[in-house]
Write a structure and sequence with these properties.
Length: 344
């Protein structure tokens, strides 16, 4: 494997598995553990319909509990692999590996520094998770490259052919001392990208990630971009997301054409204990042959699923109940990390 042949695949390319970590009483889910486990069980059932699932558990007792929960829902455990490792929390989109593939075969597990979203939360065990998975032999002979620069997987989107999309709001918070040009060069070098596109606008109230791109705008096949819009002019997000939509409309594909844009509907405000929760439909997960779409018990759920289906033709659309997840300010994509075909 030669480095110059590496690339960051698009999420819609073939996968070998999805990686998750199961919530337990030692994570921030403790106060609502039973509730959030219903989402994890539904997610596991959905993923294993299409491909294998790797579940990180904190120990043998939790493994037995998860096996019991999944068996009770008819999940095929032959498609599930358990790995016992310590972890701080379950947001594996951000603490899991960003996997680069080589055209001639081979993989590189790109292991950026995970700081708990800029030091907001303790993250020592999560930062060591990728090395632990490598030691457990999950990824075969894939190369493991540690990069001492803070980046979370939810902070980047790839079209699979050399374009990375990200947000200034997030990365300038992680690296306030660096310019956009400096960060673009680091991203291009570490992710083997040809170009880096930036959004200056877009955020969700209640989001700890400082505007991760996977809560706002997603690449889709055929030069499409699916993005979270807000049609409620009285909502405080309206102007910011309108400006983000204008930025997306101004972007061009590598051959100079505008992207085909698919705006997503806006869920009604969800308030919990006096705070607004970040309910984004853009936080969906693509798997082999399907797209798993967050549902929040909102009237917009079905329309969001329909639009995502239009942007990903030929895939089954499966709604997963995600209202319990947004209590911790994330959703479906945030708790998962896809693994490219051949690595597991």
């Amino acid at each position: 494997m030669t480095e110059h042949r590496l690339r960051l695949p698009a999420e819609w390319e073939p996968q070998s598995a999805v990686l998750i970590a199961w919530p337990h009483a030692g994570t921030d889910w403790a106060d609502r553990l039973a509730e959030v486990e219903t989402t994890y069980v539904a997610l596991a059932a959905a993923v294993t319909r299409f491909q294998p699932l790797v579940i990180v558990v904190s120990g043998h007792e939790l493994r037995l509990r998860v096996q019991s929960l999944l068996t009770g829902e008819g999940v095929d455990l032959s498609k599930v692999r358990f790995v016992e490792l310590p972890y701080d929390d379950t947001w594996l989109r951000d603490s899991g590996p960003i996997t680069l593939t080589a055209d001639g075969g081979g993989f590189q597990l790109t292991d950026f520094r995970f700081t708990g979203w800029g030091g907001k939360f303790g993250a020592e065990q999560d930062d060591a998770l990728i090395a632990g998975l490598v030691d457990e032999g999950v990824f075969g002979k894939a190369a493991h490259k540690r990069i001492d620069w803070a980046l979370e997987g939810g902070g980047i989107e790839s079209d699979g052919v050399g374009t990375v999309l990200t947000t200034w709001r997030c990365l300038t918070q992680r690296h306030p001392e660096q310019s956009r040009e400096e960060m673009s060069a680091i991203l291009a070098d570490s992710l083997h990208a040809r170009r880096v596109l930036w959004l200056d606008y877009g955020y969700l109230e209640g989001d700890d990630t400082d505007a991760h791109i996977d809560t706002l705008a997603r690449f889709a096949p055929g030069d499409r971009i699916v993005f979270q819009a807000c049609d409620d002019t009285q909502d405080p997000h309206h102007d910011e997301l309108r400006r983000m939509g204008d930025e997306l409309a101004a972007l061009r594909t590598p051959d100079g054409r505008p992207y085909q844009l698919h705006p997503l509907p806006w869920a009604r405000p969800i308030i919990d204990e006096g705070r607004r929760l970040a309910a984004s439909y853009a936080n969906y997960l693509i798997v082999n042959g399907a797209v798993l779409v967050p549902a929040y018990g909102d009237v917009a759920d079905d329309e969001a699923a329909r639009i995502i289906g239009l942007a990903h033709p030929g895939r089954e659309i499966v709604q997963v109940p995600c209202r319990p997840l947004i209590w911790q300010n994330g959703s479906l994509h945030c708790i998962t990390m896809q693994l490219p075909a051949g690595i597991v």
